[in-house]
């Protein structure tokens, strides 16, 4: 690593609560009146998103989130109201999250992967005490798109556990706002329909780095046929080195980073709120990345 000092300071800033409030956030804390008759919202979407971001980063329940934000505003001597926990829960499903700002300027190399997140049940103690049958665990699948150059998550999508990687791919690719020059995915994305979906989203010149199965046979896709021929001639490990498929491990590292910093389970109960929770967590990880990254250089 060549930037130890800068990276250490970036890690310190990730725990500094002052990075979460700015003058712009304070000025847009309260909601603007809609001009319509009836009750008006008191808190803007930015205020709700800020509270939910702090909740995701510090792993707080909703009531503790309310108290934490209240204490921060008190230390700042800011005369702003704090949303109660019920309002945070009620506003989450329909929350309009601010779009994340990308730092990459040109075409990117996109790594796509997915992982499972547990849904918090909270009734395990009752089942153990009263001998109730254990309920089947419910999972959600978090699909991510990772930019190799900037180190940011440029796309994310939360689906039920029965939705496969290829089924969630169109919605995931729709969130990528910039150009993509290379797509890297595991064997789950192999197939002609998947290739058509990717090229419809990013153009016909996108390079697909997807490993075909061991029993794959040549078909109508020339790029896939070239991968099959190269693996047959040189072996799978040589193909991975030549095509850069090993970079997919960095996407897996981002999934591990998500579970280490945010957690392995979703705290919300319904699907809409869980999708908001996952999206806010992904944006929070991107903000941490922009504070500073480790720079590596090969020495041997």
Automatic annotation (TrEMBL):
Protein's name according to its UniProt entry: Transposase IS4
UniProt key word Protease: no
InterPro entries in the record: Tn903_transposase, Tnp_DDE_dom, Transposase_Tn903
Record keywords, A-Z: Plasmid
KW rRNA-binding (keyword) present: no
Top-level division of the source organism's lineage: Bacteria
Originating organism: Leisingera methylohalidivorans DSM 14336
Transposase DDE domain residues: 13-121
Pfam families assigned: DDE_Tnp_1_5
